[in-house]
Specification:
The protein is mainly beta. It has helices at about 5-10, 10-40; strands at about 65-75, 80-95, 100-110, 120-130, 135-140, 140-145, 150-155, 160-165, 170-175, 180, 190-200, 205-215, 220-235. It contains two helices and 13 strands. A hairpin with an 8-residue loop joins β3 (about 100-110) and β4 (about 120-130).
Length: about 240
């Protein structure tokens, strides 16, 4: 018969307490690392996540309306945590055979807060077709602001590469680079987005999309995923 079990001697309790303290310590370290990464990427919340468009241009006289939801997750040292949500609208206006103008508004809010406590992101973007329906260049001029004041002005040059997979499915890859005009916000961030358009292309489409945003030479990254829907109106004017 065992008269001295580990539980009676308190050994099990001590080991359990040590394990709890170790887990708590690991949690605190991980939390501090997350906060540090967020501070290093403070300007990341002032970025636009996702494109929800293709290399196609609309044609003179046509208008496209797109609504979407995006969520952004921070990744660091093998751990991840969802931090931002976005609700957005964008409108494309066909101004010529190869030229569009796109206007975009995003409402950003943290996962644990209400949408009314977020920030506003707006952009104006000329878009030019380099190769019909396959390659386009765009140069968004971007501003973030909230009820607390204005924030960061940026340029976000991007290329859109679209690959038709069938009459109703199209794949678009969009690399983008961030140039900041505000000393408080760093530039040099790269964004890579991959999206699908599924529908009657040129008229309407459902747009699932995912992407990765990072700064070369620094640890950590942001991963975004979302879903949009677009509808095109009007006829091409000659």
């Amino acid at each position: 018969m065992n008269y001295f079990s580990p539980n009676q001697c308190g050994i099990s309790t001590i080991n359990t307490d040590k394990m709890k303290m170790k887990r708590l310590c690991n949690f605190r370290v991980g939390f501090i690392l997350f906060i540090g990464l967020i501070l290093n990427f403070l300007n990341a919340k002032a970025q636009i996540y996702g494109e929800y468009q293709s290399a196609r241009v609309l044609g003179k006289g046509r208008v496209e309306a797109t609504g979407y939801y995006t969520s952004a997750t921070i990744n660091y040292n093998g751990d991840s945590q969802r931090i931002f949500n976005f609700l957005g609208l964008q409108t494309g206006i066909g101004l010529g055979e190869r030229f569009d103008l796109r206007i975009r508004y995003d409402r950003l809010y943290y996962v644990d807060s209400e949408i009314g406590e977020g920030s506003n992101l707006v952009s104006l973007a000329p878009k030019y077709s380099l190769l019909k329906d396959k390659i386009s260049a765009t140069l968004p001029i971007f501003l973030m602001f909230s009820e607390y004041g204005s924030g960061n002005w940026q340029l976000q040059p991007a290329l859109l590469f679209s690959l038709p997979m069938s009459e109703k499915v199209e794949l678009t890859f969009t690399p983008k680079y961030f140039i900041s005009f505000d000393d408080e916000y760093e530039g040099g961030i790269i964004s890579l987005n991959l999206g699908l358009a599924i529908g009657k292309l040129g008229e309407w489409a459902i747009r699932p999309e995912t992407g990765l945003m990072f700064k070369p030479g620094e640890e950590g990254s942001f991963w975004n995923y979302g879903l949009g829907a677009s509808r095109t109106f009007g006829k091409v004017k000659q």
